[in-house]
Amino acid sequence: LMNDDIRIHSWPCSYYLDTSKQWVSGRLLLTPVAIKFTADKTGELLVNFHLSSISEIKKESSNLIFSSLTILEKNTKHWFSSLQPNRNVVFNILEHFWREQLLSSQGTGAEAAALQSTKGKELTGLLTGSQKRLEDTAKVLHYQGEQFDNIMRGLNKIEGDMDVADRLLTELESPSWWPFSSKLWKAPLETKPKETATVSDSKNQEGIIIRIPVIITHRTDSNVKPGKLTLFASGLEISDCNSQVIHRFESKDVDDIRVHTPYEISVRQRFIGKPDTSYRLLSAKMPEAIPILEMQFSKKIQFLEDALGFVGARKSPQVDLGTSIWQAATGLLGGVVQPGSPVGGREGMDNDQAQLQKQEKISQEEAKELKQILKKLKGLALETEAELERQDEALDSITTSVDRATLNIDKQNRRIKKLT
């Protein structure tokens, strides 16, 4: 239902109505699954068909019709002209969503032909999706943990440098008749710089979290072009069809991400005295990337009105990431196997396989596969929980170190003022 209601884009244009042999002005509307055309004068819906029923989208022209777009739907050819802002924009966006719909429907069609959908398959799909999301979360948390480690190393170096500064100030504050030489503070200066070489080069080692095809608009340009969006733990990268990088945003560079619809976002970096760097990205696969962006840029992401229904439907209340994911998975499994009877802790886990096999629609192989996925899910959830606890402790240490450094700086400033 959500897919029918979501309005990805609409464009003013004219449609050739074959019954009356005339052009009718109105709006061409694209949803994630369908194309529609509504006449301006009457408000009548003249065109309404599923993307999967399209066999061809072409740019055409003739002696009578210039700069038109044709869509071959089953045996009917639909003509659209006077497209705004221009024909190329509409063509690129329609073709992208048609191709993605075609790919997904082919995949599901092949699966349906080979095997009818069963509860076991549904559960495997759901839990595999959960596993993938948890793995993505773990990648982001791992990178975040590395950053905390780097911060701690930096703070330790600052503390070492401040000890050196403290000794220097003590030397300067000492009276001229003080018998000791400056050798006391020279040795530590020599030993500190080695720390900089240990900063991890995670950029070269980090993996891709997700890569999706996108339609790219740069700033307020009316032209669009197809490309790819790649999400890393450290940021995101926009590239063209030939995998040439158009722009890479490090996490710190991103000032805001706006989610216009579940299928369209904009990413912006602000500058003082020059134009912002801004990209608008549209993709049929964007719903897969948004949860990862939300996790990475929780304080910078904004869901606009048309996207609020999507986030509300998808989100559940924020709960503990460790045991809750495991409980949700086993609870879901138990609910399908024996509806109405809750699955409790380890006893439910031990009986999962036996219960699954009682269900007519779940085979022994599916039961084994589900049990393996659940084991992986539990392991990932516990690892994620442990990493979050470690990062909480690291944050406490960082806060303490920063407070200590601030006090030391204030103290040294006062001492420098006295000397000057």
Automatic annotation (TrEMBL):
GO biological process: synaptic vesicle fusion to presynaptic active zone membrane; synaptic vesicle priming
T-SNARE coiled-coil homology domain: residues covered: 357-419
Main location: cytoplasm
Membrane-spanning parts: none
Keywords: Coiled coil, Cytoplasm, Membrane, Repeat
Regions annotated as coiled coil: 353-394
UniProt-annotated location(s): Cytoplasm, Perinuclear region; Endomembrane system
Any GO MF annotation of the entry: syntaxin binding
CDD domains assigned to the protein according to its UniProt record, in alphabetical order: SNARE_SNAP47N (cd15888)
Domain of life: Eukaryota
Annotated Gene Ontology cellular component terms: endomembrane system; perinuclear region of cytoplasm; plasma membrane; presynapse; SNARE complex
Claim: Coiled coil is one of the keywords in the record: yes
The keyword Membrane belongs to this UniProt entry's keyword annotation: yes
InterPro entries assigned to the protein according to its UniProt record, in alphabetical order: PH-like_dom_sf, T_SNARE_dom
Gene3D superfamilies xrefs: 1.20.5.110, Pleckstrin-homology domain (PH domain)/Phosphotyrosine-binding domain (PTB)
Family: Belongs to the SVAP1 family.
Protein name per its UniProtKB record: Synaptosomal-associated protein 47
